[in-house]
Each structure stands twice: as structure tokens, then as C-alpha cells.
Amino acid sequence: MLKGKVAVVTGSTSGIGLGIARAFAAEGADLMLNGFGDAGEIERQRAALAETHRVTAGYHDADLASRPQVEALFAAAERMSGRSDLGFELGRRVKTTSHDILGYALLTSPTLGHALRLLSSYQRLINPAFTLELQHHSGRVDLVYRPAMAMSHRAMRFVQETIAVSNHYEFGSLLQRDLPSYEVHFSIERPPHAGRYADLAPAKVHWGDLLPGLRLSMDAALLDRPLAMADPRAMQAAEQRCVAMMRGARGSRRWSDWCRMMLREAEDSQPTLEQLAGFVNLSARTLARYLDAENTGFRELSLQVRTERAKRLLEKGEQSVTRIAYRLGYSDVASFIRSFRARTGYSPGAWGGARTSGGRVGH
């Protein structure tokens, strides 16, 4: 329970932010809502939260829509509760109707396949931090979520879990029947609360996928399943509203921060410039030009990330220099030693030996 705590929730006047606010209120936390929208609707939501959950709920219209504020929100939520599974818990509480007009379009779609195509097209209205692409292969369809903006590892874990769990329950709600077996592939490491994923049976959950993001894989035959609330006219009207909302959904990103985050989250796999560009529907040349405008380049970012990871592995002292070199993707140990010395001024052996013994780094 979060009784006696205060949650400041940015972007909480609609969509996933409102879902977060509801989850906190259900646990007894008092709320300070923040976001933009119709003043009357915001007041209705605020009053409903206060009355339904018997908490104090306020609202402030400060412009807090920045990455540092979002990062602080995730950190504060875990500190308040002392739990690692808040992403999972939020996913359980997000309903299709939480997505406003897009949720209505999903509910009134003729088939699950049509609903998923809408979800892919208007994913930004639900969660601009991740893109969604449907990929078809060998009788299966994959829902591939990739990060669209830079975020901390804590935020990556939180959002991936929220998406996976909410998708599970929303798909079951849309079909109004038990889901057949399907696969969930996380790029994050296995969390302390992994046992909770038994609740998603018959889903088979895998951890530590090579490329950053989340992948849900299911039998393509599911796409043809009809939905109980299908209403073509209502769906069309709702989608027109979604189109209008997308026109106003502007966003910006620092491409160097995003590339650095993708390289960091990839761990032992090293995505190429072409792969990263493909995730956001850009050519490699265009992404390289964007990075150049920020006074950096893909090679430099890759070396930065590999050097920082090398430092962490060396400081742990659990692996040899040779093993670390090959784990980081170097073709030979000598190349790793030269690169590490060029960027730090120290040899890998000197860095790791001094750090593990608590001494000063020497050449």
C-alpha cells in the first residue's frame, strides 16, 4: 500500500499517464496530476480519482514534459513503494478503454488483426517512448516494440513490463476468450519478480533478447479472429479522430542520446548503424547526418559505450581481459587493449587490477 505517500504524475490527464495515476491511487497514494487537455475533463478525472479511491488529488498545469521529469517519476515510484514490479502492476491495470478514442477504435475493430494494425499506426498516442511494428514470417506475426527515445535502464524495464502485461490482458479482453500460447521476448534481464509472469500463462516468457525492445510472437491465424464489439462505422469515426490527434503529436529527440541508449541496452550484441536506422524507418545515411549535426558519429558513440562497459566488467574482476575483449565484439585482444588505452590512458589490466584491489589506477 502507498497510503501516506504523494505521487506527482506527469502526463496524467489521459492515456498511460492516467493509468499510472489510477494505479497509485488504488494503492492509497495521494496524487498531484499534471498534463494538458480540456479543463472540464481534467477536473472530472481528478474528482473521480479522489472519490473512487478516497485519496487527495490535486492538479497543476506546469510544463514538466521533459525526459528528466519522466526519469524522476519512475525512480520516485519505486522508492515510494519499495517494489520492483510496478511496471507489471501497472500493466495489469491498464485497460483498452484507458486509451481514450484509440481504445474505442480497437474495441470496435472487425478482427484482432485490424485492431493490431490500428495499434501499430497510432502507438504514439498511447506511448511515444516506443514504436510498434507488425512483422509477418512463417505463419507467425510478431509485435515488435522498439525504443523511440533515450531512457534509463530503469525506465526501459518499467515500460517494457507495462507494455507486455497490458497487451496480454487487453488481447484477452478484445477476443473475450482465453489466449492461445504465444511468446514474449524481453531485452531486459530477468527481474526479481519474474515468478509473477506465471499469471500470463499460456504465454512463454524469455529474458535477455539481444536487441533493445520487446517482441510478442503469436500464430498469424489469430489475426482473423472476429471481435465481439465490431462496429465498422464507429471504428471509422474513431480512427478519424486518431488521425487528427496524430497531427498534433509532435515530438523531438536527440539522436545521439537515443543511439547511445540502444547500444547500451544491446549488451553483448552490437547493432550496426543500418540496424538502428531501420528501427526508426531512416536510411543509414540520414541517421549519420543527424548524428553529425550533433557533433558526433556512430563509431564514436559505439566506442564510448563499449569503453564504459569494459570499465564495468574490468572493475567486477570476474572475467579475464581476453574474455572481455571477445564479449565486447573485438576481433582480437590487442585491438581491445589499444582502444581501451587510447580512450582511458590505461591498459585494461591496470584498470581492472587497481579497481578490484581498491588502489589507484596506474599505467
In words, what does this structure look like?
Helix 10 runs parallel beside helix 13, helix 11 packs across helix 12 and helix 14 (321-327) crosses helix 15. The N and C termini lie far apart (52 Å). It is built from 16 helices and 8 strands. The chain has 3 domains: 6-81, Rossmann fold; 96-245, no CATH class; 255-357, Arc Repressor Mutant, subunit A (Orthogonal Bundle). The strands form 2 sheets. Strands 4-5-8-6-7 form a 5-stranded mixed β-sheet, covered by helices on one side. Strands 1-2-3 form a 3-stranded parallel β-sheet. The chain is α/β, with parallel strands linked by helices and 363 residues long.
The radius of gyration computed from the alpha-carbon positions, rounded to a whole number of angstroms, is 23 Å
Average pLDDT number: 84
Q: Could you give the order of the helices and strands?
A: EHEHEHHHHHEEHEEEHHHHHHHH
Low-confidence stretches: none
Structural class: alpha/beta
Strand order of the largest sheet: 4-5-8-6-7
Quaternary state of the chains: single chain
Shape: globular
